[in-house]
């Protein structure tokens, strides 16, 4: 697959999964390091080059879930291509801004991505649409085992896998879900519901990770600690908590419907009207409108849209938009092209 | 024609006149009083009753432009029916709130309405769609002559027709146009353009007459003085000034199109989207949206709508809405029914 083709396509996790509303996607990540090499932040150029080569050489022979990897060294990616990978959650902003001798290996479906020389030598990541913890973990472990059969990972019996940051020591596992909570936001319950999570070992972030605002009422919830917990415990805990939050969101939607049904209909239909007809849409505005529209569809108020919420969110973000248009989008042009893109999806014949 | 049928129908002036954008309607009014009777404000009950009878008796035999009159005494009209007549500009708010022994005679098309015992014994009014001064004046004069053939009007050779308020003495003529100036409002030129008019003998008012705000960017422009001016002079003057203002509006639209074309398209298309889909529309909001939509249609940006701007403005106002629905519209219900009405017109199949 050509690099452009690989970058421009929708990632598997962006698919429209109608049977799991509220939970948009599931991510499982394993942190791994090579035995006998310093962690990336103290590795230096020579060591970095060596580690990158050692790891990237293995991708050619690795097949997971029937798919091969393409390895993209950061050096061959221009800033826009890096940005797209961030917008699709395939690499971290840190890797995008990062040093030489780092890169990412992607399967064609983007289900599995492996970052090389980010905070750890390897960050194996599985991204799936919907609420899909077991399958995601199984695929991450399959990838881990296949990599480990060719590489010697730093591991101590007492601690587990060694990692650059102590919070990842142990299983090196982080599980996160992306969850869409518009009704909890509208009813001012979201602080209370999500605030409680930080006291019980979970982290809450916005759509684009640490420090990012909760654009479009999308939140990422993940486990904080790995040491001393089994993979199964971590998974079961996150599964339970996510289920409870989704239930609260679902309840808040039913309450809104009962108490202010017409106002809710008005709100989501106005969002639909603007998406269908606007000629200029800023990035912030479109995310808010898409969030309302998605809730309207899930509640049966609005007709379905062909493209999924996650696909629309990502594809209307600046990098993806510019990459498809293939020229710089200054001033109003990004808002103009974003509105064009959205109108195309909403099949407006204006 | 039944009263309900007469009240609920669109008045002739509310028709969609595509060939005269900007100027929505033309109104010509003649103030007349009966010789030998006090002006209405000092007339008293006995005299009022007598004047009303004398005038209303003549309507049965009067035909103007092939149409007969129906006389509605204020006493037979409930508050909602009075309100509708005000919303359709067929009677003044003063008459609606007024005393016994007053009323209005209407032709079936509502082109001609004659108020009885308002400020003067008779207020003959002609309301036509578009920019239609000569025809309106001719019809007012035809009505005046037919009434005068049966009634003795107070007239002095030196002054002309005598009226309760000195500003109307002379021809008793007031000509006004309703003019839609969204581009002058958007470009902040409207104060300058209309402000100048008050220094040259013209009055500027909002959509519903004296003291009313310029809802929907609609203004009424009329002559102030009648004494010492011929009907033809008054007409020619207002015709020239109206033409100039319409030209300024037209120029402002072209400038907007050249300078901020996409933003303009965005604005009017968003208005269309909201009109098509909203479930709740307040009276103030709908007037603003209809104004933007109308400009978009006139500029060829938006597809045409079946109903005209004036018809939509009037029919979405509270009284007309409630009269059609035929039950009290409390709380959100008026906004709900207004949105239903508008969606019906915009043919949305939601």
Task: Describe the structure concisely.
2 copies of one chain form a homodimer. Chain A is of the alpha+beta class and 350 residues long. The first copy, chain A, has helices spanning 3-8, 44-59, 79-87, 93-96, 133-148, 182-186, 190-195, 231-277, 283-298, 309-315, 318-325, 333-345, and strands spanning 23-32, 63-64, 67-73, 103-107, 112-116, 122-129, 155-156, 160-161, 173-180, 202-205, 218-223.
> Quick one: overall form of chain A?
globular
SSE sequence of chain A, one letter per element: HEHEEHHEEEHEEEHHEEHHHHH
The number of strands of chain A is 11
CATH topology grouping of the largest domain in chain A = Creatine Kinase, Chain A, domain 2
* Separate helix tally of chain A: 12
Give the name of the CATH architecture of the largest domain in chain A: 2-Layer Sandwich
Strand content of chain A: 15-25%
Give the largest interface: A-B, 18 and 18 residues
Using the coordinates above, name the CATH class of the largest domain in chain A: Alpha Beta
Strand order of the largest sheet of chain A: 2-3-4-5-6-1-9-11-10
Total domains of chain A: 2
How much is the radius of gyration of chain A in Å? 21 Å
Largest sheet descriptor of chain A: 9 strands, antiparallel
Poorly predicted parts of chain A:
none
Distance between the amino and carboxyl termini of chain A: 36 Å
Mean pLDDT of chain A: 91
Instruction: State the CATH superfamily name of the largest domain in chain A.
Output: Glutamine synthetase/guanido kinase, catalytic domain
């Amino acid at each position: 697959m050509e690099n452009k083709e690989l970058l421009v396509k929708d990632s598997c996790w962006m698919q429209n999964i109608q049977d799991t509303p509220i939970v948009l996607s599931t991510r499982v990540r394993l942190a791994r390091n090579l035995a006998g090499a310093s962690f990336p932040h103290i590795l230096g150029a020579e060591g970095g080059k060596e580690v990158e080569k050692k790891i990237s050489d293995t991708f050619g022979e690795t097949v997971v879930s029937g798919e091969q990897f393409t390895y993209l060294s950061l050096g061959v990616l221009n800033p826009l291509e890096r940005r797209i990978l961030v917008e699709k959650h395939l690499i971290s902003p840190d890797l995008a801004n990062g040093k030489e001798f780092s890169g990412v290996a992607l399967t064609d479906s983007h289900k599995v991505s492996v970052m090389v020389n980010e905070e750890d030598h390897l960050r194996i990541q599985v991204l799936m649409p919907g609420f899909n913890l077991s399958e995601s973990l199984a695929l991450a472990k399959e990838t881990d085992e296949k990599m480990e059969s060719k590489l010697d990972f730093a591991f101590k019996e007492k601690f587990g896998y060694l990692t650059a940051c102590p919070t990842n020591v142990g299983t090196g596992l982080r599980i996160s879900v992306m969850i869409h909570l518009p009704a909890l936001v509208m009813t001012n319950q979201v602080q209370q519901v999500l605030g409680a999570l930080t006291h019980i070992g979970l982290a809450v972030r916005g759509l684009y990770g640490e420090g990012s605002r909760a654009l479009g009422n999308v939140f990422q919830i993940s486990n904080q600690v790995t040491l001393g917990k089994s993979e199964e415990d971590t998974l079961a805990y996150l599964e339970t908590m996510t289920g409870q939050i989704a239930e609260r969101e679902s309840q808040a939607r039913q309450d809104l419907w009962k108490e202010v049904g017409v106002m809710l209909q008005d709100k989501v239909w106005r969002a639909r009207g603007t998406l269908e007809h606007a000629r200029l849409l800023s990035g912030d505005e479109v995310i808010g409108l898409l969030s309302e529209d998605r809730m309207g569809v899930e509640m049966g108020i609005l007709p379905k849209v062909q493209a999924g919420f996650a696909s629309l969110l990502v594809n209307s973000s600046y990098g993806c938009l510019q990459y498809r248009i293939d020229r710089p989008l200054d001033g109003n042009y990004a808002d103009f092209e974003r509105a064009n893109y959205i109108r195309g999806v909403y099949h407006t014949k204006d």
